[in-house]
Amino acid sequence: MHEYSLVQELLGRVEDEARRHGATAVRRVVLRVGELAGVESELLATAFELLRGQTICKDASLQLETAPAIWSCPGCSRRIEAGEELRCTVCARPAELRDGGEAVLERLELEVP
Amino acid sequence: MCTSCGCGDPELVSVELHEKILAGNERQAKHNREHFQEAGVLALNLMGSPGSGKTAVLEATARAVGGRLRLGAVSADLATDNDARRLEAAGIPSRAITTGQACHLDAELVHRALHDFPWRESELFFIENVGNLVCPAIYDLGQAANVVALSVTEGEDKPLKYPVMFKAADLVLLTKCDLLPHLEVDLRKIEDALARVMPRPRMLQVSAKTGAGIDAWVAWLEERRPGAVPA
Predict the structure, then answer these.
(1) How do A79-80 and A70-72 pair as beta strands?
(2) H-assigned helices in chain B
(3) pLDDT tens, position by position, for chain B (231 residues)?
(4) Is the CB of residue B148 less than 8 Å away from at least one CB of chain A?
(5) A103 to chain B nearest CA, in Å?
(6) Do the Cβ atoms of B177 and B209 come closer than 8 Å?
(7) Residue B19 contacts A, CB cutoff 8 Å
(8) Disulfide check for B166: which of A22, A100, B35, B159 has CB 3.0–4.6 Å away?
């Protein structure tokens, strides 16, 4: 379970960003978590609840957006559905993951006095 | 401060970042990768379930290579340095990384381990990850390739259950193949499952016990060495 170490790193990153803007509090943290990012959203939310206490995020809400995995052919752009073989049936090229492979810190809302 | 009405409330500032949560790890991994490339070391991240035969494959690799190539390894476990000792006994200079409660290696842990280990002397450098099919998959360590050990007793649908791990794999080593006569395992089902989670599925059947398939694995490694002539 690596979500705790991810949140620890995330809180440090948010703290730096808040300081850079002279913020006194963080109102909202917006994350986008891909289906194949290897990150479990619920565990991430639990870890955030548990670890934010003594940080600048102590009153922040966590907004989690999910991104489904989207595979497609790099040649003809044909969409390859989940569960199919990851090879284009037309061009025989290996599929590429277009979305859903990453967990991204999208946006922060900061309170700046 | 809110300047529109003079109420004294703090101003709400929205900051767009769009950066990967793992950006810090990826920076460190890039640094490790540069080190490996400059030194001409082929670094491999060897992952797989606990008991999938990662250490046994490396022992068999040392036997097959027989001094033709200089090997090195760091071996991660939550506790004990047993695997590093086994690798040392097999003739692979090794160092244990004891992770405590951490279920995976990250680029910083590998970097720290490199500081007090003569890794530059290795031509093939194995990073034996913590036995775990989940967490190690998302941490880039600076390796040239990811190798996943999957043993024949783990179930034909394992790749479908752990797609993130197998998506990240450049090669799957199907281990303990000497057990196949005693099992009802359909290899086509494993190959089919891999094709649904790995865009470029590549699997080699090996047995660390009999040495079967280990030459093909060593050939795969040699093809990837810096300066190797493509076969």
Answers:
(1) antiparallel
(2) 23-38, 54-65, 82-89, 107-115, 158-161, 163-167, 187-195, 214-224
(3) 555 666 667 899 999 999 999 999 999 999 999 999 999 999 999 999 999 999 999 999 999 999 899 999 999 988 889 999 999 999 999 999 998 888 899 999 999 999 989 999 999 999 999 999 999 999 999 999 999 999 999 999 999 999 999 999 999 999 999 999 999 999 999 999 999 999 999 999 999 999 999 999 999 999 999 877 665
(4) no
(5) 6
(6) no
(7) yes
(8) B159
